[in-house]
Design brief:
Layout (H helix, E strand, L loop, with lengths): L1 H11 L5 E5 L5 H8 L3 E5 L6 H15 L3 E5 H15 L2 E6 L9 H13 L2 E4 L2 H11 L7 E2 L12 H6 L7 E6 L8 H14 L5 E6 L5 H10 L6 E5 L4 H7 L2 E4 L8 H9 L3 E4 L15 E3 L4 H12 L2 H18 L2 H12 L6
Parallel strand pairs: 1-2, 3-4, 4-5, 5-6, 7-8, 7-10, 8-9, 10-11, 11-12
Helix pairs in contact: 1-14, 3-4, 4-5, 8-12, 11-13
Length: 350
């Protein structure tokens, strides 16, 4: 989503944007870029040698005659750095916060080389920047931080409330993210199940928007907790803005993250946020000021935060308004794109 939203904002600013996708990403991202009228190219990276992949990207860059190549994450960062250096194109890297990416020595070596060959390397949060710098043994100024930003998007809550049969007085709890263990969806179901069993919260329903390998285990957990009819695994959704506006509480219970767009979307929608105190999330949310932070992996803290927020309309309104003000000040697409523009033109960040 960040790639799509940044591309749209840059196009609005008068730039020509061409997307280069590994063939393994032909699908959701390819279709969304095509639907928005973006020109795109594909390149085969899987199964080839380092030299053949770099060579193929080099040929593509020469044909496209680019001014700047902006690579995201490990694979494109490494191949993009080598190819752009060879053709004299300015290269910018963005790293989004995969904590396991630097576990292997060969990956650490490849990233050190790629960062050194590029005009600028950016992390999406200060936490990600520090993690990369320390893991790779880099000087403090080797990586900059540009925090994610998102566009303001309007959504209609009524179709959502109808779809999930949300009667008056029933609160909607929303989580957005791929169904992977690190996203902590099982912890959220456990916490709500505990509160429901003890009768400590008003009527509620939980919608989890996302797809992934934990779908069946989560369904089993819902059945085990007797929460059928209350918890909905809604799959990949195209109406996240509407879900965010319809929600009474947004929850991001991840074990680790970069700076998740879904948290920023909730903030700009004015929806109060409960999120894990991990990775880049505390850079967007100050505890008890514009959201509630809990210890990652703690069902007890998550349940206590849910009980507190679901039982107080005043607190939901207060935190939602504060979060929206923070989001509009610090996490807009305009701010983020402006900082990237300065790097594209060869400048630095303040």
């Amino acid at each position: 989503m960040l790639v799509i939203q940044l591309a749209e904002e840059l196009r609005q600013r008068g730039h020509e944007v061409v997307s280069i996708l590994p063939t393994r990403l032909k699908g959701w991202l390819h279709d969304h870029l095509a639907d928005r009228g973006f020109r795109f190219e594909t390149i085969e990276l899987a199964g080839g040698s380092t030299w053949s992949c770099t060579r193929d990207l080099l040929k593509l860059l020469r044909r496209l005659n680019l001014d700047v190549l902006h690579s995201h994450e490990f694979t494109m960062a490494v191949f993009g750095a080598a190819a752009s250096r060879a053709v004299g194109v300015r290269h910018v890297i963005t790293m989004h916060g995969n904590q396991t990416m630097v576990d292997a020595l060969r990956r650490r070596i490849a990233l050190r080389v790629a960062f050194r060959m590029s005009h600028a390397t950016v992390a999406v949060s200060e936490d990600t920047r520090v993690h990369l710098r320390e893991s790779l043994g880099l000087p403090d100024d080797a990586i900059s931080t540009i925090r994610n930003g998102i566009p303001r998007q309007a959504g209609d809550p009524e179709p959502i409330r109808t779809e999930f049969d949300l009667s008056q007085g029933t609160l909607l709890v929303l989580a957005v993210g791929g169904l992977h263990k690190r996203k902590g969806h099982a912890l959220l179901i456990e916490a709500l199940g505990r509160l429901q069993m003890e009768g400590r919260i008003p009527p509620w329903k939980l919608v989890i928007a996302g797809a992934g390998p934990e779908h069946e285990p989560l369904l089993s957990l819902v059945e085990e907790k007797g929460l059928g009819g209350r918890v909905f695994l809604a799959g990949q959704r195209e109406d996240i803005p509407a879900l965010q506006v319809a929600a009474d509480v947004f929850v991001m219970p991840s074990l680790w993250e970069g700076l998740p767009l879904a948290v920023l979307e909730a903030m700009l929608a004015g929806t109060p946020v409960i999120a894990s105190r991990t990775s880049g999330i505390p850079e967007a949310i100050s505890h008890n000021e514009d959201g509630i932070l809990v210890r990652p992996g703690s069902v007890h803290e998550l349940a206590a935060a849910l009980e507190r927020l679901l039982n107080s309309r005043h607190l939901r309104r207060q935190l939602g308004e504060a979060g929206k003000a923070r989001g509009e000040r610090d996490f807009t697409i305009e701010r983020m794109a402006g900082e990237y523009e300065r790097l594209y033109r060869g400048g630095g960040l303040d």
